[in-house]
Design brief:
InterPro entries: LysR-type_TF_proteobact-type, LysR_HTH_N, LysR_subst-bd, WH-like_DNA-bd_sf, WH_DNA-bd_sf. By secondary structure, the chain is α/β, with parallel strands linked by helices. It folds into three domains: about 90 residues, Arc Repressor Mutant, subunit A; about 100 residues, D-Maltodextrin-Binding Protein, domain 2; about 100 residues, D-Maltodextrin-Binding Protein, domain 2, CATH 3.40.190.10. It is built from ten helices and twelve strands. The protein has a five-stranded mixed β-sheet. α5 packs across α9. It is globular and about 65 Å long. The termini are far apart.
């Protein structure tokens, strides 16, 4: 006999907390108290028999169970929203469903998409963020997906490649002034993101630094955790132009050394699932390709 589904309010609390990586942020979105969100998350964890979050002093991290469960919950809410919009008679041509990873949405898309929305005020935006997308980049309920992964991997070959980048360390400007040689970074807290093919080991070798037997690297599941730590002067984060570019243009982060290594991953604009598209997604695709100087 199948186990009954968990209550919808528990799933809403989980979905919001996973996107914000914060019970407080989820509480603000859902117009609830932080304690109420926490109680609903605990109830869902008890129901599933697995923890969903690693609770730290200043932020949350998703467990493996949460990372596996979140895409399903997200897709279910999107399906409900689409069904409701159909019943209410919302013009589906106006709906722009964008799916991308959290760091891309925060550090690249959010500072720029205002230009697109001003040029296309008729568009109704729904932007879904995830920590790590499903291995298959195509998502049935998203009219636009920006995928990030190994450029040599087969699933991404059908997409339009948007980037070819290098990766490098970044830190707060005042901190960068204290370094004269790359090996001095070994005395600092090194920050990186799990799931990236290459990181500190590759960069240190390229910089001619002898890697100690026990190289300490503090890891997080997203750049949304590591870059704020670097901004606060709490460590040296590994990054690349797509997620660090705006912060460096503002002078909030800098590269302590100009050495960079080729990033094996890239961002891809994936084709619409089943070839389905609408006016909003077509307009967005044209806009983002122009942003990357890939338009016709």
């Amino acid at each position: 006999m199948n186990k009954p589904l968990p209550p919808l309010n528990w799933l809403r609390a989980f979905d919001a907390a996973a996107r914000h990586l914060s019970f407080t942020g989820a509480a603000g979105e859902l117009n609830m108290t932080q304690s109420a969100v926490s109680q609903q998350i605990k109830a869902l964890e008890s129901f599933l028999g697995n923890p969903l979050f690693i609770r730290k002093s200043r932020q949350l991290e998703l467990t493996n169970t949460a990372q596996a469960y979140l895409p399903t919950v997200d897709a279910a809410f999107k399906l409900l929203a689409e069904g409701t919009q159909t019943v209410l008679g919302v013009d589906q041509d106006q709906m722009l469903e964008i799916r991308s990873n959290l760091a891309f949405s925060k550090y690249w898309l959010t500072p720029r998409i205002g230009r697109f929305l001003k040029a296309n005020p008729w568009v109704r935006l729904n932007n879904t963020t995830v920590i790590w997308p499903d291995k298959a980049p195509l998502v049935p309920n998203a009219s636009v997906e920006i995928a990030f992964g190994d450029a040599a991997a087969l699933p991404f070959q059908s997409g339009a490649r948007l980037t070819e980048e290098t990766f490098y360390p970044v830190c707060a400007p005042n901190q960068a002034k204290t370094f004269t040689k790359p090996k001095e970074l070994l005395d600092q807290r090194l920050l990186d993101v799990s799931g990236i093919i290459e990181g500190w080991d590759s960069w240190l070798r390229a910089a001619g630094v002898e890697i100690p037997p026990l190289l300490r690297i503090d890891m997080a599941s997203t750049y949304v955790v590591t870059l704020p730590l670097a901004l606060e002067g709490c460590g040296i984060a590994m990054g690349h132009d797509m997620i660090c570019g705006t912060l460096m243009e503002r002078g909030e982060l800098v590269r302590p050394f100009e050495i960079g290594c080729p990033l094996r991953e890239a961002y891809f604009l994936m084709p619409p699932f089943g070839g389905k598209s609408n006016a909003a997604s077509t307009a967005f695709r044209q806009w983002i390709l122009q942003e990357f100087d890939l338009g016709n």
